[in-house]
Amino acid sequence: MRAPKRSGGYIHATATVYWDEPYTAKNRSTLTFNKAKFQLQTKKSVSGRDPVVKSGAYTGLEHALEHSSSNGNGSYSTGTFKYKAGPYRYLADGYIQVDWSGDGKSFRAPILFTASPVV
C-alpha cells in the first residue's frame, strides 16, 4: 500500500494491486469469478485497533483479474478518494475478496494487505 497523501486539509488514498499467477493463464476466462473487489480503507491511527474513517469497494478488480495477460500477470488501480482530515495521523490499508464462479459460495475470506506508512 502506498501512504495516503495529506493535502489541503484532506487525506487522499489510492492503491494498486499487482499479481503474477501463471497457473491461471491457461484456464482464465471471463467466467472465473462471480464477483471480485478491492476494499480500500483510510483509518485514523490510534493506539489499539485503528478505526476506519472512509472505505470504498472497487469492483473493477474482477474485470482486471479475468483479463490478465496470457502469462496470468496483471494489475489494478483503485480510484482515489478523499477524507476531511482532523488533527490526527492516518494510514491506508485494504483487502481483496473474490467469489469464484460455480463453487456455490459467496465471497471468500479476505486477502489482507499490509497497512501503509502513517501520515
Key descriptive features of the protein:
119 residues; mainly beta; three-stranded antiparallel sheet; 1 helix; 45% strand
In short:
This protein is mainly β and 119 residues long. It has one helix at 61-66, and strands at residues 5-7, 10-13, 16-20, 33-44, 52-58, 73-77, 81-84, 90-100, 111-112.
Structure description:
- The protein is mostly beta strands and 119 residues long.
- Helices cover 5% and strands 45% of the residues.
- The chain has 1 helix and 9 strands; from the N terminus they run βββββαββββ.
- It has one helix at 61-66, and strands spanning 5-7, 10-13, 16-20, 33-44, 52-58, 73-77, 81-84, 90-100, 111-112.
- It has a 4-stranded antiparallel beta sheet.
- Strand 4 and strand 5 (52-58) form a beta hairpin.
- The chain is elongated and about 45 Å long.
N to C succession of SSEs: EEEEEHEEEE
Helix percentage range:
under 10%
Distance between the termini: 13 Å
Instruction: Write down the overall geometry.
Output: elongated
Low-confidence stretches: none
Structure annotation, total helices: 1
The fraction of residues assigned to DSSP E strands is 35-45%
SSE blueprint:
Layout: E1 5-7, E2 10-13, E3 16-20, E4 33-44, E5 52-58, H1 61-66, E6 73-77, E7 81-84, E8 90-100, E9 111-112
Antiparallel strand pairs: 1-2, 2-7, 3-6, 4-5, 4-8, 8-9
